[in-house]
Amino acid sequence: MLKRIAGQVGGISKMIGEDKSCDAVMTQIVAAMSSLKSVGRSLLADATCSCSKEETKALLKRFL
Prior knowledge:
Layout: H1 2-17, H2 22-50, H3 53-63
Helix pairs in contact: 1-2, 2-3
């Protein structure tokens, strides 16, 4: 997933360099942000399995 996100970000940079429309660039930025949120949720889910109850509560409070 992270390689795909890196590709998305590289594509955004290329689009900006090619002076693509703002709408097209923003669409790709939103897609990359969505992918990053998905990775973050996955990491938090994994952390809740390996962290103490207090650590899990702190993580969820901080990031959600």
